[in-house]
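Example (one chain per record):
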Amino acid sequence: MLCKTDCNTCSGSNMKWDACPDGFQLKSGTCTPCTATGCNSCNSDLAKCDKCLDGFQFDKVAGTCIVCTQPDCKSCNADRAKCDSCVDGFSINDGDGTCADCTAANCETCNSDLSKCDACPDGFQHNAIEGTCNACTATNCQSCNVDLARCDTCPVGLQFTADSSSCCADP
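Predicted structure:
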């Protein structure tokens, strides 16, 4: 049996699954999709969630996920009308619990000043003074915190090149 795309890892001579991606349950070496709407994890019962996807409120008693009513919520309060946190690229407005779009380019998160980034996604360098995210210029960088033209870390599965300035599959 070969590893399938709906599982994270498999091992052993009989190729049993060791871990499953979000939205699946691992049981007896097989990945089976959760059946409840909005489930990120359903470890004990396919129809009951243990954790919800972004944009859903978790009801621990019922084991269900109920969609947040505000757009761009990562998580919301019990009545689902106010966001507790926002998805990447948005900042929470503490006054009314809504999410506002970061206006600076390439922000992963921003604060109350929507034009300044607090964090950047992989492949970008965060300039904390200016609140900007600048693209790494070296090939395949996960991060380039010191120098845009030199990788600090490589994504999983890639390695530093011989001169340690960029990342590739086979140095």
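Caption: The chain has a mean pLDDT of 84.
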